[in-house]
């Protein structure tokens, strides 16, 4: 096996042959499913969760989490247990995934920077596939809320209502930051749950399920799930899976930030949400709410898999499940994303490619989400555009134990980066300060090794993968001011 970034790799041809063979033989698993015609293009189903870390059963990130539908998805293909986002914030992460270009290329580093006028038509994955014969469909949160070009999709279902995370009505000032905890009093236990059919995720999945019944032409379908993004107002039955008195908190180290440079401490905001939540005695309550939201999202994945399995497309559809970034729940005295540590950057990534991915396998290689674009193109028989910066994962899809030389790169705002391999995480901030963690001996990243002189060569090697240049940030849009209620 050659280095996937250099030279000819014969496994790519093997992957394409396996996929073609699978498509020719599709339908063999069940006589009830119609087989596609010879030479038919594969369909693509991309499922994107929001703010989902490794708290799913296939990644064993939390010992109590219940995700039976992601379990059955993982049983069909390859789970990447060391996948990293391109950026630990929604907008730059999703822009990078769909455009194929890193934040350091586009200049989109934050949520307040609309990307649309900075990335030409035809460059994003959905539009690129449209130009190669695919019908492009989307439902739910694909880009960062309304930051997308509807003209680059054939059909889009985008519903907004008062359950949509991020609306002005769901943000509140004060010690808990934005309303990541509850729709009521942010200092009270989480109590408000809603009817499942009222939540946008359920509606998005229903729309996608209907599309699966109607489509007769090759399609690229993206289904965006808002959960487990806040608010965690999912139906009570998902809370009932996790009795409050039995909920386990994530492992932490007291004074974990003591060996972290000030630039990293600033991202953690140790005197913010975590300090206030623990003081109020609500840490376990919020962990429970997050777990409930994860199980709700898993149930929606199950509904979508059921719809696919009952359709004519079951045996010739490539499935990718991913999250835009991770989420801290108290680790390193931090909540939410917006940091370069493992909990904020590591994401679920599950691939099912008929005839290519060995069922029920795991891949330990460090990869990042820039790989989604070129890999889907390769599997679909579409040429990957030159602007796509990611490495093609097809060698790892065919053989999850294959050698892999390319580290994963994560960027948080301009000048701050993490380089990740199977063994190391190297963080360098814009001011030149550093962190270094051994992921094998210290998976919780409790001991910063950056100051050890004997590890200077490792830092020097990893630093070679830092961006050679960084685009200036594109212009941002000021956040909308909250409207004052008129007095009656």
Please explain how this structure is put together.
The protein is of the alpha/beta class. It is 26% helix and 14% strand. It has a single domain, classed as 3-Layer(aba) Sandwich (Alkaline Phosphatase, subunit A), CATH 3.40.720. It is built from 14 helices and 15 strands. α2 crosses α10 and α6 packs parallel to α10. The longest helix is centred in the middle third of the chain and has 27 residues, at 283-309. It is globular and about 60 Å long.
Major beta sheet summary:
9 strands, mixed
The total count of strands amounts to 15
Query: What structural class results from the helix and strand content?
Result: alpha/beta
Sequence of secondary-structure elements:
HEHEHHHEEHEHHHHEEEHEEEHHEEEEH
Q: What general outline do the C-alpha atoms trace? A: globular
Low-confidence runs: 1-38, 161-184
- Please bin the fraction of helical residues: 25-40%
Distance between the termini: 73 Å
SS field, number of helical segments: 14
Nearest-angstrom radius of gyration? 22 Å
| CATH H-level superfamily title | Alkaline Phosphatase, subunit A
Q: Averaging pLDDT over every residue, what do you get?
A: 86
CATH architecture: 3-Layer(aba) Sandwich
CATH topology-level name: Alkaline Phosphatase, subunit A
Strand content: 5-15%
The CATH class is Alpha Beta
Q: What is the domain total for the residues?
A: 1
């Amino acid at each position: 096996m050659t280095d996937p970034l250099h030279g000819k790799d014969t496994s790519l041809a093997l992957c394409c042959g396996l996929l073609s063979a699978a498509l020719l033989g599709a339908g063999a698993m069940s006589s009830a499913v119609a087989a596609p015609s010879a030479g038919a293009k594969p369909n693509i189903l991309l499922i994107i969760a929001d703010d989902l870390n490794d708290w799913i059963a296939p990644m064993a990130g939390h010992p109590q989490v219940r995700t039976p539908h992601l379990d059955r998805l993982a049983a069909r293909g390859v789970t990447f247990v060391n996948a990293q986002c391109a950026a630990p914030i929604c907008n730059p992460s999703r822009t990078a995934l769909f455009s194929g270009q890193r934040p350091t290329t586009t200049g989109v580093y934050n949520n307040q920077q609309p990307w649309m006028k900075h990335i030409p038509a035809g460059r994003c994955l959905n539009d690129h596939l449209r130009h190669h014969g695919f019908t492009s469909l989307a439902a739910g949160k694909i880009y960062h809320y309304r930051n997308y070009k509807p003209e680059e999709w054939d059909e889009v279902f985008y519903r907004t209502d008062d359950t949509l995370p991020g609306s002005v009505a769901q943000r509140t000032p004060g010690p808990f930051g934005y309303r990541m905890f509850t729709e009521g009093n942010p200092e009270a236990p989480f109590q408000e749950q809603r009817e499942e059919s009222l939540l946008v995720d359920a509606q998005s999945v229903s729309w996608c399920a209907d599309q699966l019944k109607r489509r007769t032409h090759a399609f690229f379908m993206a289904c965006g799930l808002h959960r487990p993004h806040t608010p965690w107002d999912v139906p009570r039955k998902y809370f009932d899976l996790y009795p409050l008195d039995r909920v386990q908190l994530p492992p932490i180290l007291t004074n974990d930030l003591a060996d972290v440079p000030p630039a990293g401490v600033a991202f953690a905001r140790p005197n913010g949400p975590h300090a206030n939540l623990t003081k109020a005695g609500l840490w376990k309550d919020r962990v429970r709410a997050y777990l409930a939201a994860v199980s709700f999202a898993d149930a929606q994945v199950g509904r979508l898999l059921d719809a696919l399995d009952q359709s004519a497309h079951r045996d010739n559809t490539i499935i990718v499940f991913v999250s835009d970034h991770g989420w801290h729940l108290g680790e390193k005295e931090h909540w939410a994303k917006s940091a370069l540590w493992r909990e904020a950057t590591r994401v679920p990534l599950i691939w099912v490619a008929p005839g290519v991915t060995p069922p029920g396998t795991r891949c330990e290689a460090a990869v990042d989400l820039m790989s989604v674009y070129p890999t889907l193109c390769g599997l679909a028989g579409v040429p990957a555009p030159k602007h796509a910066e990611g490495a093609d994962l097809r060698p790892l899809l065919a053989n999850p134990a294959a050698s892999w030389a390319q580290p994963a790169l994560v960027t948080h705002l301009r000048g701050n980066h993490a380089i990740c391999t199977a063994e190391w995480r190297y963080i360098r901030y814009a001011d030149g300060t550093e962190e270094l963690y051994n992921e094998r001996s210290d998976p919780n990243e409790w001991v910063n090794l950056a100051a050890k002189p004997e590890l200077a060569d490792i830092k020097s090697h990893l630093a070679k993968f830092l961006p050679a240049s960084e685009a200036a940030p594109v212009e941002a849009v000021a956040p909308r001011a909250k409207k004052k209620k008129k007095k009656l």
